[in-house]
Write a structure and sequence with these properties.
302 residues; alpha/beta; two-stranded antiparallel ribbon; disordered N terminus
């Protein structure tokens, strides 16, 4: 066993621009994965059809909503931290009556596309998309009833994602919850093979680092979160992950193999999920977790 080798450090401005470039270039490539543009893995439970990938993707949205523990008989405003093109927000608005969702992303293309996909009246009334950095939100303290991040908190730099956690804590109302679903590393030492796969995945998805589950939870506690609930959901997402080879092969031959131009970003988009499957087999070193926590109702400090 050896220490984890992180990806090559980049300046904050270059790192942010890399994320914007990646999602601007590869954004439409998520449609073969999900016709509704769900940009995350799915969640399987009894009653969900494992042969229906979209149903499992929607169930992950449902898991986020249920873990926010909202009182659905009153108005709530939720914040989607890293909203992509708004699939999770559309699911929540479609399945509630009084919930309003604000989608936050740093990618201008995603804001434009999200609005194009959200023209129904119910979406226009209760769903908005804003160009916002979730580490520096232009929102008032204690103004949001709940927040969630589906495979987006990983884009904050560092292993503990402290800036992301501090800012979400600031904008949440007392008693409100944060839900995070993402890949997390386990422990501090990893094999050379794992590190090789890890670097390839991070490079392909323009990531600085995945969070470490232990340091992420510790940062939550240090910041002031309570009632922290951690579920290793690796087996719950495994059935949707099994679709990756087929979707990736279709993507490779239709988008990359037949295209002779420089497609560096697209190639990374193909490599990352394939290597991610192999990385996920290292169960003692990596797992998919759903973590939720509550901002205390009574606080000793702001």
């Amino acid at each position: 066993m050896i220490n984890t080798v992180n990806t090559t450090p980049t300046s904050p401005s270059n790192y942010k621009q890399g994320i914007i470039d990646y999602y601007s270039e590869a954004g439409m490539d998520y449609e073969p994965w999900s016709r509704r543009f769900n940009m995350h893995f799915g969640y399987f439970r009894l009653g969900v059809n494992p042969f229906n990938r979209e149903a499992m993707l929607d169930e992950m949205n449902n898991q986020a909503l249920s873990r926010l523990q909202l009182s659905l008989n009153k108005a709530n405003t939720l914040l989607d931290l890293g909203c992509g093109v708004g699939a999770s927000g559309r699911f929540i608005v479609s399945n509630t009556e009084l919930v309003t969702v604000i989608g936050a992303t740093i990618v201008p293309w995603q804001v434009k596309k999200a609005k194009e996909l959200s023209t129904d009246r119910e979406f226009q009334e209760r769903l908005t998309f804003e160009l916002m950095d979730y580490c520096k939100l232009p929102l008032a303290n204690q103004s949001i009833d709940g927040a969630y991040a589906l495979e987006s908190s990983c884009y904050d730099k560092g292993k503990d994602k402290r800036r992301f956690l501090e800012e979400s804590f600031r904008i949440l109302k007392p008693g409100a919850r944060l839900v995070v679903a993402d890949g997390f590393t386990k422990g501090e030492k990893h094999t050379r093979l794992f590190n090789f796969l890890y670097r390839k995945v991070c490079k392909g998805w323009m990531l600085d680092d995945f969070a470490g589950v232990d340091v992420f939870v510790k940062a939550m506690r240090d910041i002031g979160y309570e009632d922290i609930q951690v579920q290793d959901a690796s087996w719950r997402v495994a059935l949707s992950v099994m679709y990756v080879p087929w979707v990736s092969l279709k993507y490779f031959f239709s988008k990359i193999f037949l295209n002779k131009s420089d497609m560096k970003i697209e190639m990374g988009h193909f490599v990352a999920p394939v290597f991610g499957m192999l990385m996920g087999l290292h169960r003692s070193q990596y797992g998919y977790h759903i973590i939720s926590a509550r901002k205390p109702i009574k606080q000793d400090r702001q």
